[in-house]
Write a structure and sequence with these properties.
mainly alpha
Length: 262
């Protein structure tokens, strides 16, 4: 009986030990599972944090690169606009300088022939008034201005055959006077000027010369028509019309009072 009781206690002790060991193993596995889950969550959270940091860094880098690109484009546009503005300013200054120099060289360069003639007439009246009032200082200044105005009038005068012939006569008279008074230093200049004016007669034919040219073309038209050379007649008629137009222009310019010599 005592043997059974002893064996029973040993079995209960063994059962208790087994239960305690099983409980410890269950607890150990439970905590391991909890730790594993916590570790997995921690790793997942860390991955998310790293991914978010990478996304943030990439966004920041993209924004910085975009800003650099936009700045580079704006700088390029600004440089191009600045270059164009500087170029325009340079051209504007150059034009202003050219106009200033032209004005200094020829104060009446922008005026028409009629306006310069009006200035000349006004200067002549001022000169007469200054001489009448014995203001010889003002008269000297006006005379110098009048000399420049006369040169401007001659430079701007619309050239016709009549004007050309009057200029030739005037230079011939000056040359004759220089020879008569033995001012031989002026003769070479006067002769050169005279030769240049005479050479320009071909550019400004007289009315008789124009009529001869028109008549010659009309005769050629008649001859070509009689010979049934209609192509030659057409060309001759074109030449005749051209010379007739020159004749009409000659009459208009010679009759116009604006073209008379001052």
């Amino acid at each position: 009986m005592f043997l059974r009781h002893s064996l029973s206690q040993k079995l209960e002790t063994l059962t208790t030990l087994r239960k305690v060991g099983a409980a410890r193993r269950i607890q150990s596995q439970f905590w391991k599972r909890i730790v594993a889950k916590a570790g997995a969550k921690l790793v997942l959270w860390a991955h998310r944090v790293i991914f978010r940091q990478r996304i943030f860094y990439m966004k920041k880098l993209a924004a910085k690169l975009g800003a650099i690109s936009r700045r580079a484009k704006q700088q390029e546009q600004y440089s191009a606009i600045k270059h164009v503005c500087l170029r325009l300013q340079s051209l504007a200054r150059m034009k202003i300088a050219q106009r200033t120099v032209a004005t200094l060289r020829d104060p009446w360069g922008a005026m028409t022939y009629e306006e310069v003639v009006g200035k000349k007439d006004a200067a002549e009246k001022e000169l007469e008034a200054a001489i009448a009032s014995k203001d010889f200082a003002s008269a000297g200044a006006i005379e110098a201005k009048l000399s420049l105005l006369k040169e401007a009038v001659e430079a701007k005068r619309p050239m016709t055959r009549g004007v050309l012939e009057s200029m030739i006569k005037e230079v011939q008279a000056e040359l004759t006077d220089a020879v008569a008074n033995k001012r031989f230093a002026e003769c070479a200049e006067k002769q050169t000027k005279l030769d240049g004016l005479v050479a320009r007669r071909d550019d400004f034919p007289s009315r008789d010369e124009l009529q001869k040219q028109v008549q010659a073309r009309e005769d050629k038209v008649s001859a070509c028509t009689a010979a049934k050379d209609y192509g030659g007649a057409a060309e001759a008629q074109k030449d005749a019309d051209l010379w007739a137009a020159k004749l009409v222009k000659f009459d208009r310019e010679e009759v116009s009072p604006r073209q008379t010599r001052v």
